[in-house]
Design brief:
The chain is an alpha/beta fold. 42% of the residues lie in helices and 17% in strands. The protein is flat, with a radius of gyration of 51 Å.
Length: 1441
């Protein structure tokens, strides 16, 4: 008699090992729950009192327990129980067998479990019991579990058991407890496992199977596909057994749970490495038992959590497990806390982190890793982009290891991002390791620059002092991603200074949500209440205020002066002299004490823009010296001041042609110079809304000291200036007084300096007020520059941090603030500073230029000068590779900076300059995603001396069109120097952009664009900054209307969009000049204004408009006649749209004239007839009244014609509606024809056929009616594709040799109905016969010779039947008759095809080129041709017969 031991081995997280003692306790508790409590207490006392007792004592307890249990049960004979089980009188699911019991017998433990006790004397009967149970067919399906206790298996017994398990597939759990197996028994059991398909769980408890038994089990389980759980307890399987199990795991993919308790720890490594290497989703628990009856878990793998926890491994085992993780994709969490690891393991782990793509969390706390190991882990973090959490608390690495570890999470330059952007949580620190200075620098650098870590913990550190932690918290101010901080156990967190530093950080950084200070002196002293209170305040909801309403306004305290003028006019010298006058140390200069410049110095021109800042009490004046070279004018408009900003202009003009000689300029030259800059200022400034905001301009004439007769010369210039003042009145405010100065003399320039002071004060009073905070922001920006080596630019993120840390009004106070509004508030302040000229801001590029002189002189200067250094741009048609452009920009930048040393700008990189050029339309990237794509830079192009003087593809009878766009001279603006470069970029984007579908070619020169698009050659020529015109020439074989429409839609909108309000007049060029590509100087007289030509047409009588000719003068060069005089019809110079505009205007003019000259009609008693009203009079009185009456009659006639056209239009619409009704009904009839026999044998043969008489392609006739004849006919079939029924070309068909009366009787109704539908289709819409494939088959060839009487007769019949119709019942009856007739024809077709041996799908495909398919959407079947079969694969499924 015995007890079944409870097997509770399924706990997934904290699995306990059941030892022999604990099993006895479990038996006692379960038994005593139903029987006697005293026995339970006694046994538990005895078992608790001697935990380390030997095996004999435990057996004594077990035997005593069994005897006690036997005395309390009604023992039944084994044979009786066997009979009941075999006869299916009792339902048993669980059987347990106990050997070496004092008594034989059976007892039923529960309703579904039975226990067999076999005494020592009757051990031999065990095989008979097994054989009897195995032979019972009725009870086979009920058994679920077998359990064997202390069985010493013989080969015969094991063979019986294996045969039983082979036959019974319902047994899913087998438990062997303290069994003894022989090698042959285990081998037999292994063979059974290979074939068994029922066992799910297999348990071996203290059975001593050893490495040999495990090898047999592994061999059997390698081929088994059903076992899901394997447990081996208290066995010494050894390293060999572990290797065998690992090989089994590699082959077996069904095992879900593996539990092993072994005396050696070496068994875990092979098993877990196999599980990891094969990506098995298996739960694994490996325990180690010691001699002291204590069990320790070695490794635990929980697939539900994708977690691996290692407890105890040697270095070799740890390396093996780590290597297996390399390509594993199931483990997301790795915990190796407490295992002693070395740098050898860390080197392997580096490779794992570089390869693994699934590992998210790693815990290596207290693993005694040193600096070398930390370096290996850091190297892996450079490549790993999946790991999110890393814990390294309690290790031995110090400052060197920390320096390397934090390197992947740090950002060392504004040009590059941090290497690792996925790590979110990082923990390190130890009481034993010391963090030196380099480690401290690495910590502060990482915190200040990291943009990914949200949780950071530095734990149990003892060597960092309070000053070190203050630096750490100072660096946290710049970090907006950290949310959780932990300094648990750090002894340096102490003192009042530390508390103030933390509070200051929380004041600046509201994004920190929690700080853990457990175990720190600050926490122990209870001084952290303020910190936690501030953390709660940073999470509160702040009441929103208006964007900038709380910021006061004030007058601007600065003013800008722009010095405009051509090169060598003395602007730079004048700027230097004025700065000396404004300086605090005012030196008295006289005419003979001048700062003379040598001729070489005077010849050096300003590159870009130079800026000098002057101080005058509380006023700051910045002088912007614009470079005078024409190439720099392209960029001047980029930095031109906004309208209404505190700015005025000085136009500086030299009175001499060259500074080295004394030849004065002519009066017209000075006037052109001043007028050019006046137009430049007006064009680049928005039109003022009030007279007080007009651009303020003063004229300064230099080199006055060289003038021999100044009085008379200056009077002429003053008179010229007065004329310009009157001309530009309302556009600029031109100061009436001229300043004639010697730019080198402070005395000569003093009046100009005084004028600058006065004008600056006046402008400050006129312009709108600015935000008062701008001054504070400007001071903070200056401090930032002084702290950062005078950096000329800063990133937007740096500016936001500066606002957060130093400017209260621009600080985010809570992490629940409206961040978008604060961002807009900061951008508004930056825009205000740009309005004042304090900085330059590019919103889309995300950086601020703080040193405007650096940007305008160095950056813009190098972009201009780069054109001379690039020799291959012209050969590449304006394109240059992006890498090469970056290289050139970098070289130019380095060569442009003065001094021997190379200055590196940290905040701006070369790619930012290219992005800036793209945003400003100065260049265009062919493919922004490709770093090797080319960049179009138009202003780098050089002017070609030998221009292309012929068309690429000229045509003799083609169309030549030319349009001339010129600035209206009455306008006070002009086309800016950067106009044509932007036009080149704009047209390139429009024609060859990534979203455009034009197939075009595009070629560039400095002032030329060549385009070939849609068969039209277009040539766009620019006259330059002084001629101010754009010629658009075109050549094509298309009509003039198509060519002009292309120009109007493609080119003209871009020209008008980029001219910035400049009025352009459009003229028509002589076609002969366009054909010969005459130079621009010869085209000046070969053009006529478009509006002038239209006006000439409007002035002509109506009959003469189409015959009007425009006469062209000749083109001669000296005595050589290039093109003689000639004429062109106006209708050939204008497009149809333009000519229609003239006619429309003529009609409106006549209509207005008729309204103005309308006279009331006489009171006639008789109403005139419509014919009398519209009948024109032969004679019109030559008076005003007569003309009015004539016009009135013409208008009435036009109205009558218009009404007739409307009536005709309505009639056409009615006919089209009638036609639509017919087609819709015809469509329904054809659908009925195609689908009526769908249920008849699933459409096994085609249903739409027709007959043709004759064999040749030209002699074939369509059979329209069936008559008895000996002439053979040919059967053909239509493609039945829905919506596209048509004749199949090159169809062989079948020959019908005999057409007797029976055939006629069967087919005549079908042919008649088919022809009626066909004739109706041709009559309703003959033009649809080929084009409208949705309704009508294309039988045009076969119908070419059909008799017309048949057509008209059939059409009339069907039209009457369809349109007039009958009652519902008659239509239903007709439908039934039609279906019956088609069934008869279908049956004839089937019989005929069977006679021709053409009843299979293959045969039909050969003769008729049709295939049977099924539509995917509705399941209907049709026979379609090869073309539809290949093109409609997504709609059909082929269904062969």
């Amino acid at each position: 008699m015995g007890l079944q031991v409870n097997n509770s081995y399924r706990s997934r997280k904290n699995l306990e090992v059941p030892t022999l003692v604990s099993d006895i306790r479990a038996c006692v508790f379960r038994f005593c729950k139903n029987k006697k409590q005293q026995t339970s207490q006694c046994l538990v006392k005895r078992s608790r009192g001697n935990k380390s007792s030997d095996t004999s004592a435990l057996r004594y307890h077990l035997n005593g327990l069994e005897k006690s249990m036997a005395s309390n049960h009604d023992m039944r004979s084994i044979q009786q129980v066997l009979n009941e089980i075999l006869s299916d009188k009792i339902h048993i699911e669980s059987l347990s067998f106990h050997h070496f019991q004092p008594y034989d017998g059976c007892y039923q433990e529960t309703e579904t479990s039975m226990s067999f006790n076999i005494s020592v004397n009757n051990i031999s009967n065990f095989s008979h019991i097994l054989a009897a149970l195995a032979s019972g067919r009725e009870s086979q399906a009920s058994f679920r579990m077998l359990e064997f206790h202390r069985v010493e298996w013989t080969f015969q017994e094991q063979k019986i058991l294996c045969n039983w398990l082979k036959l019974n597939t319902c047994i899913n759990r087998v438990v062997f407890r303290k069994n003894n197996f022989g090698d042959r028994s285990l081998s037999e059991f292994s063979e059974m496992l290979k074939r068994n398909i029922g066992i799910k769980e297999l348990v071996f408890l203290e059975s001593g199977i050893g490495s040999v038994g495990v090898s047999f089990l592994a061999l059997g389980l390698s081929e088994n596909k059903t076992v899901e759980e394997l447990q081996i307890w208290d066995d010494s399987i050894g390293s060999k057994g572990a290797e065998d199990i690992s090989q089994m795991i590699e082959a077996n993919s069904t095992l879900k749970l593996l539990i092993i308790l072994d005396s050696e720890t070496i068994t875990a490594a092979p098993i877990i490495s196999a599980v990891l290497g094969r990506n098995r989703m298996m739960e694994l628990h490996v325990w180690n038992s010691t001699s002291k009856d204590k069990n320790h878990k070695i490794v635990e793998l929980v697939p539900e959590m994708n977690a691996l926890r290692a407890y105890k491994f040697d270095i070799a085992g740890a390396c093996r497990i780590t290597c297996a993780l390399g390509w594993n994709s199931t483990i997301k969490s790795l915990d190796m806390t407490g295992i002693q690891l070395k740098s050898r393991w860390a080197k392997e782990f580096q490779r794992v982190l570089e390869q693994n793509k699934s590992l998210k969390y790693v815990n290596l706390s207290r693993t005694k890793l040193k600096d070398k190991a930390a370096i290996y882990i850091a190297a892996a973090l450079f490549k790993n982009q999946c790991l999110e959490g890393l814990e390294l608390e309690g290790n031995l690495f110090g400052g060197v290891g920390i320096e390397h570890l934090l390197c992947p999470m740090s950002r060392f330059s504004m040009f590059y991002n941090q290497a690792n952007m996925t790590l979110k949580s990082l923990t390190f620190g130890s009481g034993k390791a010391k963090i030196n200075v380099s480690g401290m620098v690495a910590i502060t650098k990482m915190i200040a620059t990291n943009q990914s870590v949200t949780q950071l913990a530095i734990c149990n550190n003892k060597n960092l002092k309070c000053e070190d932690f203050i630096k750490i918290f100072k660096s946290i101010e710049a970090n907006s991603t950290l949310k959780y901080l932990s300094f648990r156990g750090c002894q340096g967190i102490e003192g009042k200074r530390m508390l103030e530093a933390i509070m200051d950080t929380l004041q600046v950084n509201p994004w920190i949500e929690d700080i853990d200070l457990t175990g720190t002196p600050l926490e122990n002293g209870r001084h952290t209440d303020e910190i936690y209170k501030k953390l709660r305040m940073n999470g509160r909801l702040i009441m929103e205020v208006d964007l900038l309403k709380d910021i006061p306004l004030t007058k601007p305290k600065c003013c800008r002066v722009f010095l405009c003028g051509q090169g060598s006019s003395g602007k730079s010298t004048l700027c230097g002299t004025i700065s000396q006058i404004f300086s605090s140390s005012k030196i008295q200069y006289t005419d003979h004490m001048r700062s003379l410049k040598s001729s070489v110095e005077q010849g050096v021109n300003t590159g870009g823009i130079r800026i000098k800042t002057l101080k005058d009490d509380d006023l700051k004046i910045s002088m912007w010296d614009l470079a005078g070279e024409n190439t720099f004018h392209v960029f001047h408009e980029l930095i031109f001041p906004e309208q209404g900003s505190p700015t005025f202009f000085l136009i500086v003009s030299s009175m001499f042609k060259k500074p080295t000689n004394r030849e004065p300029k002519q009066m017209h030259e000075i006037e052109e110079d001043i007028q050019y800059w006046l137009r430049f200022i007006i064009t680049n400034s928005k039109k003022a809304q009030s007279q007080s905001l007009l651009p303020n301009v003063a004229v300064v004439l230099t080199h006055f000291d060289k003038l021999m007769q100044p009085t008379e010369y200056l009077k002429q210039i003053a008179s010229c200036t007065n004329r310009l003042r009157e001309k530009f009145q309302g556009y600029v405010e031109l100061y009436p007084t001229l300043f004639a100065v010697d730019a080198r003399s402070s005395m000569s320039v003093s009046k100009l300096a005084c004028h600058m002071r006065t004008t600056s004060e006046t402008i400050r009073e006129r312009v709108p007020k600015v935000y008062g905070i701008c001054e504070e922001v400007q001071k903070v920006l200056c401090e930032w520059r002084s702290e950062n080596s005078n950096e000329p630019a800063m990133k937007w993120d740096e500016f936001c941090y500066m606002c957060q840390s130093r400017i209260e009004a621009l600080r985010i106070r809570s992490r629940r603030d409206n961040l978008e509004k604060m961002e807009a508030r900061r951008r508004a302040i930056v825009s205000s500073l740009q309005y004042l000229g304090e900085l330059i801001y590019f919103d889309e590029l995300g950086f601020l230029v703080l040193d405007c002189e650096w940007f305008c002189r160095d950056v813009i200067g190098l972009l201009i000068r780069m054109g001379g250094k690039q020799q291959n741009v012209a050969q590449r048609k304006g394109f240059i590779p992006r890498k090469e452009l970056e290289k050139l920009l970098r070289k130019c930048l380095e060569s442009w900076i003065p001094g021997a040393g190379l200055k590196t700008i940290k905040n701006i990189k070369v790619s930012d300059l290219i992005e800036m050029m793209v945003k400003l339309d100065l260049c265009y990237e062919q493919n922004p995603q490709d770093q090797h794509s080319e960049v179009l830079v138009p202003f780098l192009l050089e002017e070609k001396l030998g221009k292309l003087n012929k068309w690429i593809s000229p045509t003799l009878d083609g169309t030549y069109v030319g349009r001339h766009f010129e600035r209206d001279d009455s306008n006070h603006m002009f086309l800016t120097p950067g106009f044509f470069a932007r036009l080149q970029v704009n047209l390139h984007n429009k024609i060859l952009g990534p979203r455009q579908q034009h197939s075009a070619t595009y070629t560039l020169e400095r002032h030329l664009i060549l385009i070939n698009v849609n068969g039209v050659d277009i040539r766009i020529e620019y006259g330059g900054e002084y001629d101010q015109y754009v010629d658009v020439l075109a050549c094509s074989n298309k009509k003039i209307t198509e060519v002009i429409r292309l120009i109007q839609n493609l080119v003209v909108p871009s020209i008008l969009a980029l001219c910035r309000g400049v009025t352009l007049t459009e003229s028509i060029l002589r076609p002969k000049c366009v054909q010969e590509l005459m130079p621009p100087r010869d085209r000046k007289l070969q053009q006529v204004l478009l509006q002038q030509l239209k006006g000439a047409l409007l002035s002509l009588p109506a009959n003469d408009m189409y015959e009007y000719q425009h006469t062209w003068p000749p083109v001669a060069e000296g005595s050589i006649m290039r093109i003689p005089s000639g004429f062109d019809f106006a209708r050939d110079l204008l497009s149809e749209d333009e000519f229609n505009d003239v006619l429309q205007k003529r009609y409106h003019d006549l209509h207005r004239l008729a309204i103005e000259l309308a006279v009331a009609p006489a009171n006639n008693t008789h109403e005139p007839s419509p014919e009398a009203e519209v009948k024109p009079q032969s004679n019109v009185e030559p008076t005003i009244l007569g003309i009015a009456k004539g016009i009135e009659l013409v208008l009435q006639r036009l109205k009558f014609i218009e009404q007739e056209l409307k009536d005709i239009k309505h009639e056409i619409q009615g006919l089209r509606y009638y036609e639509h009704i017919l087609i819709c009904k015809l469509h329904r009839e054809i659908n009925n024809l195609a689908n009526f026999s769908m249920q008849l044998e699933e459409h096994r043969v085609p249903i739409m056929f027709y007959f043709v008489q004759g064999t040749g392609s030209y002699s074939r006739r369509l059979v329209t009616r069936m008559i008895s004849s000996i002439t053979p006919l040919r059967l053909h079939m239509l493609c039945e594709m829905r919506g596209e029924i048509h004749v199949v070309e090159d169809q062989l068909g079948c020959e019908v040799m005999k057409v007797d009366n029976i055939v006629i009787q069967q087919l005549a109704p079908y042919v008649n109905k088919f022809m009626k539908l066909l004739m109706l289709a041709l009559k309703v819409g003959a033009h649809f016969a080929v084009g409208l494939g949705e309704l009508i088959p294309d039988l045009s060839k076969e119908l070419a010779l059909v008799d017309s009487s048949i057509v008209y007769g059939a059409t009339a019949m069907v039209a009457g039947a369809l349109m007039i119709g009958g009652s519902r019942s008659s239509r239903q009856g007709s439908s039934r008759d039609i279906q019956q007739e088609f069934r008869v024809a279908q049956q004839w077709l089937k019989d005929f095809l069977q006679e021709q041996k053409c009843y299979r799908g293959k045969d039909i495909a050969e003769k008729f080129s049709l295939w049977r398919v099924r539509y995917r959407d509705n399941g209907q079947i049709a026979w379609i041709c090869r073309r539809h079969r290949e093109s409609r694969l997504n709609e059909i499924i082929e269904v062969p017969v």
